[in-house]
Amino acid sequence: MTDQQIYSVLGVGFGPANLSLAVTLEELGWTGRSRFVERAGDFQWQDEQLIAGADIQNNPFRDLTMPRDTGSRYTFVNYLASQGRLTDYLHLNTKFPLRREYAGYLRWVADAFRGSVDYGQSATRLSVVDTAAGEVFRLETGSGREYLGEKVVIGTGRSPRIPAVFQGSLGSSVFHATRYLSSMRRLKGRDLKVAVVGGSQSAIEIVLDLLNRPDVGQVVSVQRGIGFRLKDTSPYSRRVFLPEFIDYFYPLPSEAKQRIRAELRSINYAACDQDVIDRLASVQHEYELMGSDRLRMMTFSEVAEVTPHAGGAVNRLTVRDVHHGTLSAYDADVVILATGFRDFGLGPDDEHYHPLLEGVADRLALNDYGLPAVARDYSVPVKQSYGPRPLRLYLNGLCEASHGMGDAGALAVLSARSTDIVESLMLEPDAVPGRDGRPAADGLLTERLRDEALR
Ligand SMILES: Cc1cc2nc3c(=O)[nH]c(=O)nc-3n(C[C@H](O)[C@H](O)[C@H](O)COP(=O)(O)OP(=O)(O)OC[C@H]3O[C@@H](n4cnc5c(N)ncnc54)[C@H](O)[C@@H]3O)c2cc1C
């Protein structure tokens, strides 16, 4: 079924990134028609890891809109007030709200935009098609729907990172953390032995949650490093979440960007908050006092092989010490991969670009490395022969390599980034490309963006 309208803005994904975009479009007075397509049946925010007691890692005032407009009706504070919970929340004197509370806030905002979102639609292909009005984007979904649009904003989040050794074993007993809660609900059995792979915040939260489950007999944490490490929460390091940092980072040569990202990696990756580390260390100490092996730490270790249905358990893991090279075996009923998300770049685990860009890849401006050249306003220049208006493609939350560490995984930058994108969307070039063959890429704006992106 084709939705014959040509939308001014088509958003793919309706998580926090494109939700913030919807808020900004409304608040900055966008008058064009916009539509969002979301895979989930209803609004959700990382539902699969909505673990009891987990809090957010972000000052809740840096919400979808407050850094731009303190008077916005969509602030976290307004949400609390609208639920009659503001005083209770303030009384709690907590630094970070529970993830459950913040998910409630995001859902409350999303409800205000229900009319602009088609839920239960998984975008499967993006292409450029010729219509009577000229070239426009076509977005196809898994259920056979098609949407046409002049500007597309991809806000899908990144793909889960599945290390190669697990790729043939994924299923009901080997799964990524993004499927944690639903997979655990489906598991049957008692005294389960569960391996959690990774040293991230998600990994430690899952280990703690598993230890609270009566059907779990033993949890083994397998990680390459020395054990769960502390996140870099220095206010100086956290400057990466400031809009000024993006201005500093964006024009740097790619080697400098890689160096900064490596140096500041523990802001976001393979590192955990103090509270969960303290909690786990104390739980571990208590098990040791009781002589219990319910929690095992396999550190400086990586899984070298997975053999299904071995040793009476569902999966036999061959684990290698990363320094000595010695091998040991662990039989696990369940293996949970808290192994993070794939970056965009040239690394062995990286994706060159989001899979949805495959159908338009030959029209995108590429940089010297063959990767999409993203401009400061998060757009990727698109070649077009003619159309109602120049085609524009934006990446909302997929630009860590070009825009810095705040981009991929932080709520803190949402409002600044969506403001940049909407301001750019509103900058229409004077020239509308026509059927006379005058290429849209000659439009002043597109030319400027391409120069900037390729610099
Ligand atoms: C468990 C967890 C906790 C986190 N907690 C914090 C935190 O406390 N603070 C913080 O700053 N960051 C946190 N993050 C980082 C997180 O990435 C951001 O908070 C935020 O979710 C990013 O928003 P997003 O919209 O870019 O991506 P997502 O939240 O991943 O949303 C993307 C949306 O796009 C949809 N989608 C994907 N593909 C398609 C498709 N093909 N078609 C249609 N729809 C699609 C998805 O269903 C999803 O709803 C957390 C991440 C995780 C995994």
From TrEMBL:
Signal peptide: none
A biological process from GO: intracellular iron ion homeostasis
Keywords: FAD, Flavoprotein, Monooxygenase, NADP, Oxidoreductase
Required cofactor names: FAD
Catalytic activity field: L-lysine + NADPH + O2 = N(6)-hydroxy-L-lysine + NADP(+) + H2O
GO molecular function: L-lysine 6-monooxygenase (NADPH) activity
Pathway terms, separated by semicolons: Siderophore biosynthesis
SUPFAM superfamilies found in the cross-reference section: FAD/NAD(P)-binding domain
EC number from the UniProt entry: 1.14.13.59
Record keyword Flavoprotein present: yes
Family: Belongs to the lysine N(6)-hydroxylase/L-ornithine N(5)-oxygenase family.
Protein name: L-lysine N6-monooxygenase MbtG
